[in-house]
Amino acid sequence: MRLHSIQQSLWLLFHVLLCYCWQVHAQISVALPEEEIAAEQREIIRIPIAVFLLDDDNDGSLSSARTIDDVQETVGRVNATWYRQAGIEIDPIAMERVVVPVDLLEGMKWQRGFGRDFTSFFRAIYQGQMQDISRLEDEALIYAFYVQSLGGGINGMKPSGVNSFFVVDNPSVYDYRVSSHEIGHLLRLHHAMDSSMLMFSGSNGMTLTTVEQTVARYAAEGMTRSLDNSDR
Ligand SMILES: [Zn+2]
User: Fold this and answer.
1) CB within 5 A of ion ligand 1: which residues?
2) Prediction pTM value
3) Ligand 1: distance of its center to the CA of 124 in Å?
4) The domain made up of 46-229 is a member of CATH 3.40.390.10
5) pLDDT-derived band of residue 26, with 50, 70 and 90 as boundaries?
6) Which residues form the signal peptide (predicted)?
């Protein structure tokens, strides 16, 4: 075989390989499901969240046993849940312990005949008694409160009329799931019937339907607009 012909063969082999590699590459490139491509193209909506661990001002017996590291990990997972599925970034702008009058913590625990009293807690914030919390009112769109217990065997709660939710120290499901679920309520979502869903009450389900994603994004956008319009 002449040298020229060997060169030609090698050149041909090179092109065949190049073509093959290109096809493999193209197959990998189109392997992304359409839904994920759509999710990637959505604009990310950033929701600044202020996170507090509640301690009592008495002997510490009603203080949260969680650490800042615990909630940091939890909030990271909460963000992953909302970011990946709905394009909503849950961005912590504060993460700290705050001392709360012990009677307010006691009032939040369920009592037969009385229910729960969240009103006194929020009134105290609005009256400036807990400035560590109220100082963030122009920046935070959601407040997360990690509390030792709310009594009544509940994992978490979003009291009506406030942009806040509570999560107890030892929930019966993953704490990031409780937190993600309560944020779902804050973003106008109601309970789902399927235990694999994030909005099912009392499971470790994490899935949001396409409709829920749309509703939550709409609510989140509304929240961010309220921040834009606020007087500074
Ligand atoms: Zn719920």
Assistant:
1) 201
2) 0.81
3) 26
4) yes
5) very low
6) 1-26
